[in-house]
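Folds vary. Our protein:
___
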Amino acid sequence: MTVKLGQALQDTVKQLRAAGVEAARLEAELLLMRITGLSRAQLWTREETMLSPVQRQALAELVAARCQRRPLAYVLGEKEFMGLAFRVTPAVLIPRPETELLVERIVADLSDHPAPWIADVGTGSGAIAVSLAVLLPRARLWATDYSGEALTVARLNACRHRVTIRCSWQQGDLLGQWQATLTERLDWVAANLPYIPRGELGQLQPEVQFEPRLALDGGEDGLDLYRRLLPQAWRVLKPGGRLGMEIDCRQGAALSALCREVGWREVEIVKDYAGLDRFVLARKPEREG
């Protein structure tokens, strides 16, 4: 059976819409771009081009996976973050656009620093750590994750963007294994840890159900890991060092209060582009004790 590119695009849009995919037109274009190697503009100027049998089979497999509501990023195997393409697999959380705000804040804070030391806790795909290494050419990054599979993906992304030499990776529980081994204290700690309350995991979108539960489950109120991170980050940061944590929009006040209990000062809640609370930032006092 012969199928023209234009017809394949129309058919794909219909299948995705029937499966409940909201951005069916855009996603259909992205799937066709993947199997043909064409740009979006070329899709519309080459509608009469015939798909090869290999291309038809590849498209059918991609569409079937997406119609099962497998996230598009997993279907394509990558996701853009900070203008960079990152490899993603079901072993890692898919990077979200909102997290770019934290990277931008860190870059702005450290742009004049001669050689900043930064930790990325719960690095997943390495999106935060690798982006910071690219945007801050003098920075050194330490990234941790509980999952060895996630760190494998992160290392691949560091290699892809040629920052391997400035990124160190550690499998383990938060900053626990590093507290006794760091030879110098850090300037920043970034953390995008699991923060979904456990009782709400079953209510998440179908696509989110494909993401690793380990990267989503934040305990009863979503703040279990942050409670443990706060004293650890305090010990590894320099006086005046900063901690940034991504949160659910309902957790800003509670996490801010936890920060102050530990001794953090200049605690700030930062909103995302939708006007929702998205990050809690805190600074360690210049003088300890």
Remarks:
- Residues 53-67 form the longest helix (15 residues).
- The CA atoms of residues 196 and 267 lie 22 Å apart.
- The first strand starts at residue 78 and ends at 81.
